[in-house]
Automatic annotation (TrEMBL):
<keyword id="KW-0813">Transport</keyword>
<feature type="transmembrane region" description="Helical">
    <location>
        <begin position="70"/>
        <end position="94"/>
    </location>
</feature>
<dbReference type="InterPro" id="IPR000515">
    <property type="entry name" value="MetI-like"/>
</dbReference>
<feature type="transmembrane region" description="Helical">
    <location>
        <begin position="138"/>
        <end position="158"/>
    </location>
</feature>
<feature type="transmembrane region" description="Helical">
    <location>
        <begin position="251"/>
        <end position="271"/>
    </location>
</feature>
<protein>
    <submittedName>
        <fullName>ABC transporter permease protein YtcP</fullName>
    </submittedName>
</protein>
<feature type="transmembrane region" description="Helical">
    <location>
        <begin position="16"/>
        <end position="39"/>
    </location>
</feature>
<dbReference type="GO" id="GO:0055085">
    <property type="term" value="P:transmembrane transport"/>
</dbReference>
<dbReference type="Pfam" id="PF00528">
    <property type="entry name" value="BPD_transp_1"/>
</dbReference>
<comment type="similarity">
    <text>Belongs to the binding-protein-dependent transport system permease family.</text>
</comment>
<dbReference type="GO" id="GO:0005886">
    <property type="term" value="C:plasma membrane"/>
</dbReference>
<keyword id="KW-1133">Transmembrane helix</keyword>
<feature type="transmembrane region" description="Helical">
    <location>
        <begin position="106"/>
        <end position="126"/>
    </location>
</feature>
<keyword id="KW-0812">Transmembrane</keyword>
<keyword id="KW-0472">Membrane</keyword>
<feature type="domain" description="ABC transmembrane type-1">
    <location>
        <begin position="71"/>
        <end position="271"/>
    </location>
</feature>
<dbReference type="InterPro" id="IPR035906">
    <property type="entry name" value="MetI-like_sf"/>
</dbReference>
Length: 286
């Protein structure tokens, strides 16, 4: 009976491994193809594994001032947006995690209400317009600066921290701000990095909001510029016609895709070890 069960477990494990390998291949193949096409030299046919490798497409793209300007805009929006969002999220989540906060359940309920129901696109645009934020980066930074999901995950993480640490700090004379800075935040590294990654990915991939609130093409971030390159819209502003003499058009487009996704691909492995513990610890309590 035990031998039959072991055979069943082994067959189940093989099925799970085969399924996961299939999912892995389906996920990786498009990425491998994009990288391969971006490395294809002029005159070669696009294949999954090119016979010769050329970096001309990347060199041509990195010489374009408009693309470099868009890259700088995306970096600025991502760094500034993450700092602003983390400041507001921590400042809101920590008080809500304290059991002695007056009206705590009401405030949490009001915040949760905005998560389930929102006013919609047109009222939001009218508010941004009346605040004179259209055609400014503040429209992108303040819009969605605090995510309710991230706020609740961080609040739950703070609630799971031992209360004895806070009580010991207050006995030593620390106030709430000192407890937050010297006790809570150093112990909250996993959730801070996890939520920071969420905000960074959202801000880096922001596409619709710049189209809605910005009209100057010089203010557009990298995803909008990438759309223009891929669709051929205003591509002359970003890709010099002479570039086609050293790299094929498809390689230029795929190189733009790689340059757009590369920063997040480099950041994620560094944060990955904190990702699971931060998400699970923040999601234990409702």
């Amino acid at each position: 009976m035990t031998r039959i069960r072991r055979r069943g477990d082994a067959a189940f494990d093989r099925s799970v491994n085969a399924f996961l390998i299939t999912v892995l291949l389906v996920t990786l193949l498009p990425l491998v193809y994009v990288v391969s096409v971006s490395l294809t030299p002029l005159g070669e046919t696009n294949t999954l594994l090119p016979l010769r490798v050329s970096l001309n497409a990347y060199a041509e793209l990195l010489k374009q001032p408009a693309l470099l300007r868009a890259l700088g805009v995306s970096v600025f929006l991502t760094v500034t947006g993450v700092l602003l969002s983390m400041l507001l999220t921590v400042a809101t989540a920590y008080p809500l995690s304290r059991a002695d906060l007056p009206g705590r359940k009401f405030l949490t309920g009001m915040i949760l209400f905005t998560f389930l129901f929102n006013a919609g696109l047109i009222p939001l645009y009218l508010v941004v317009r009346d605040l004179h934020l259209v055609d400014t980066y503040w429209a992108l930074l303040l819009h969605g600066a605090v995510s309710v999901y991230n706020l609740l995950v961080m609040k739950n993480f703070f609630q799971n921290l031992p209360e004895s640490l806070e009580e010991a700090a207050k006995i030593d004379g620390a106030n709430d701000l000192q407890v937050l800075w010297h006790i809570v935040l150093p112990l909250s590294k996993p959730i801070l990095l996890t939520v920071g990654l969420f905000y960074a990915v959202t801000q880096w991939n922001s596409f619709f909001e710049p189209l809605l609130y910005l009209s100057d093409s010089k203010m557009m971030p990298l995803p909008v510029v990438l759309r223009d390159i891929l669709t051929g819209l205003n591509s002359a502003d970003y890709v010099d016609a002479a570039a086609t003499t050293t790299a094929p058009p498809d390689a230029l487009k795929m190189a733009a895709v790689v340059l757009t996704t590369l920063p997040m691909l480099l950041v994620y492995p560094w944060i990955q070890r904190y990702f699971t513990s931060g998400t699970l610890s923040g999601g234990v309590k409702g």
